[in-house]
Structures are given as structure tokens and as C-alpha cells.
Amino acid sequence: MTRPALARLCGTALLLALTGPARAAAIQVEVDGAEPGAGPVLVALCQGGLSGDACGQGDRGSSASGSARFLFRDVPPGTYAVAAFQDSNGNGQLDRTGLGLPLELYGFSNDSGRRGRPDFREAAFTLREPGVSLRVRLVRALPRR
């Protein structure tokens, strides 16, 4: 190996040793706008899309105070979105009309999805160490019946 090639190899090894592997971070989510006592708040951490398959990590919390806090720990750095809704009838899913409009309170990170079908790119945020804190506000798509 030539001396310049050896120097480049050593330089690359040193750079990799200094930067180290990407570490996991935390995502703190505060969901507000819930109706107190009207059912639990469900929140999901999504990666790559907003479908059920893309939202693999989730949690549920009480809506007694009108807001709920969630903490996702040890999440690898990357691009994510948060989806949340208040499960007013306790069936574990966001109920919709025949046209697909949500019947229950719902919300996404970055306040996306308020004027139409939510888009992952609009709801997405980048997670880096040590983590991120964000707020999701629940809204109603249709007037109360």
C-alpha cells in the first residue's frame, strides 16, 4: 500500500471512530384538544407513510385533563410523523364516514391534514439526538351530532 493510500485509510478510520454510530433518541409528544373523559387518546409513531403498516409504534393515554403526554424512547434517528386520535367509542380505531371523513377527534404532527387527506411529507420531522418535543392538536372534521 502506498503512503498516500495508507494516510487516506487512517484518516477515514479516525473520522469513523470520532463520529461513532448513530444513537437512539426520544420523542416527547403532547396531544391537546381532547374532550375530557370522552375516551382514551391513541398516538402512533409513523415512518415512511401514515398507513397502519407504517405506524408500528403506538401508545394510549387518558384524556381526563383534555391533553395527554407520550414518550417514545430509544427511537433511531430518521424521518417520522405522529398521528393521534381520541377513541370516543373505545373500539381502537379511527371511525370514519362512508366518504372517509374522521368521525372522532384527530391530529398529525406539523398540524397537517386539516384541509384534506394527510400527507406523510407534510407531517414529517427529522429526529436527531437527543430527541424532539412536539405538540399535536386534535380537531374535529365534522360538526358534533
Low confidence ranges: 2-21
Report strand %: 25-35%
Q: Major sheet, described briefly?
A: 5 strands, antiparallel
Terminal Cα separation, in Å? 77 Å
CATH topology: Immunoglobulin-like
General shape: globular
Per CATH, the class reads Mainly Beta
CATH architecture: Sandwich
Kindly state the percentage of residues in helix: 10-25%
The overall pLDDT average reads: 84
When the domains are counted, the total is 1
Number of helices: 2
Topology of helices and strands:
Blueprint: H1 3-19, E1 25-32, E2 41-46, E3 57-61, E4 67-75, E5 78-86, E6 106-108, H2 120-123, E7 125-127, E8 131-137
Parallel strand pairs: 1-8
Antiparallel strand pairs: 1-4, 2-3, 2-5, 5-6, 5-7
Short overview:
This protein is an alpha+beta fold. The protein is built from two helices and eight strands.
3D structure, described in words:
The chain is built from 2 helices and 8 strands. The chain is an alpha+beta fold. The protein has a single domain (22-137), classed as Immunoglobulin-like (Sandwich). Strands 2, 3, 5, 6 and 7 form a 5-stranded antiparallel β-sheet that branches. Strands 4-1-8 form a 3-stranded mixed β-sheet, with no helix packed on it. Residues 2-21 have low confidence and may be disordered.
Which features does this protein show?
alpha+beta, 145 residues, Immunoglobulin-like, single chain, disordered N terminus
